[in-house]
Design a protein that fits this description.
Blueprint lengths: L24 E6 L3 H10 L5 E6 L2 H10 L4 E4 L2 E2 L2 E2 H10 L5 E6 L4 H9 L4 E4 L4 H77 L5 H16 L3 E7 L5 E7 L5 H20 L5 E3 L2 H8 L9 E10 L2 E11 L7 H24 L16
Parallel strand pairs: 1-2, 1-3, 3-6, 6-7
Antiparallel strand pairs: 4-5, 8-9, 8-12, 10-11, 11-12
Length: 370
């Protein structure tokens, strides 16, 4: 007969009235046998143990819903079912509770069923106090280890969640930085292109003091960049009037060219003279808004015009236009922005050299002496 020694255990002890703590081990006994209840109460009479009791599966399920349970000891033969089913339910729910089946009708088949159902141990009745105490200690040690592992997993999940958030933030910052770098690179490339074009045009007209040659070289440079196009340079005759300085006829008839160029000098050049940026027009509607009733002269044309300033004075207006079926490349805008002030400076230099004898190269009546 197993020895039912009534001695106190030094491993797992608690009183039924002990104050519950988060550090306590919570044990649920599911058995209507009063002797088993008394023996278990002695076995786990320690300082860190809370014992719950249930006589049926239904009571056990209710207790499991209400309280945290670390260890379940269950008898297979209960009034409302088989205790092994409870072990299976806890295993399938991946509960943290350890389960020990205690059977008054032990058999190899029942022990196998209990282990397959997810029970951590199987103990036969009548219970031995020392054996019960040792089995409970092992189960609770296993539960303690499992709890530490679960806590560690939860902590790692929290850390991973924070890392994912941080990674997303870093990714967003990297995306923003990359976008900023792309924008900066594009701006730098545009500036470098402008510098190259400025240097190229400056070298072309360097020290040029002949007005006709300067205008010819400018037109040739623009045609080189824009491709075949009609092009004209208008020079100020008075403060509000312009005259033709030079032109290239691409697709206008000889008869219409003179009339068209005179109209451009009278109407378009003054409109461009006060503009700080190039005018780039690609459709008739915009052209009509800009030119009003005079739009017919340039209908169905793609137009690019710009002023060439020097010290707040417009010294030339340049106009490029051709059929809109052959639109100007958008890069041409950057080209004309780069060369406009250079041409203005070159024209001012010619004025100074040819009129050095004048104190003021611009006469009082506003007429510019070319």
């Amino acid at each position: 007969m197993p020895r039912k020694a009534r001695r106190r255990s030094s491993v797992v002890k608690t009183g039924p009235a002990a104050k519950k703590s988060a550090k306590d081990f919570h044990v649920l006994l599911v058995d209507a046998d009063a002797q088993v209840q008394q023996l278990l109460r002695e076995a786990i009479d320690g300082d860190h143990m809370v014992l719950y009791q249930a006589a049926t599966l239904e009571e056990a399920r209710q207790r499991l819903k209400q309280s945290r349970v670390d260890l379940v000891l269950v008898e297979p033969n209960l009034s409302d079912g088989c205790g092994i089913d409870l072990a299976r339910e806890l295993s399938q729910a991946k509960a943290e509770s350890q389960t020990i089946v205690i059977s008054g009708q032990p058999s190899l088949e029942r022990a196998i069923d209990a282990i397959r159902a997810g029970a951590a141990d199987f103990i036969a009745k009548p219970l031995d106090l020392d054996e019960l105490n040792e089995r409970v200690r092992i189960a609770l040690d296993r539960q303690k280890t499992n709890r530490k592992q679960q806590n560690r997993i939860r902590r790692l999940r929290r850390i991973c969640k924070k890392l994912n958030v941080a990674r997303d933030e870093v990714t967003q910052q990297v995306d923003i930085l990359c976008n900023d770098l792309v924008t900066a690179y594009q701006e730098l490339a545009s500036q470098m292109q402008s510098v190259v074009q400025s240097s190229e045009f400056s070298a072309l007209i360097k020290n040029e003091l002949d007005l006709e040659q300067l205008l010819r070289e400018t037109l040739e440079y623009l045609i080189q960049k824009a491709g075949p196009t009609n092009a004209a340079i208008f020079l100020p005759a008075t403060a509000h009037e312009f005259t033709l300085g030079g032109y290239v006829n691409f697709d206008c008839t000889a008869d219409s060219a003179d009339m068209l160029l005179q109209h451009l000098a009278d109407v378009v050049a003054p409109l461009l003279a006060d503009r700080d940026m190039p005018v780039h027009i690609t459709d008739n509607l915009t052209l009509a808004d800009w030119m009003g009733d005079d739009v017919a002269y340039l209908a169905d044309s793609h137009l690019l015009g710009f002023a060439c300033p020097h010290e707040d004075e417009t010294l030339a207006v340049v106009l490029l236009f051709r059929d809109r079926s052959q639109p100007f490349d958008s890069d041409l805008n950057e080209t004309v922005i780069a060369i406009a002030p250079l041409l203005g400076t070159a024209l001012a230099r010619i004025i100074r050299v040819h009129h050095r004898q004048l104190a003021d190269p611009f006469e009082d009546d506003g007429e510019i002496p070319f």
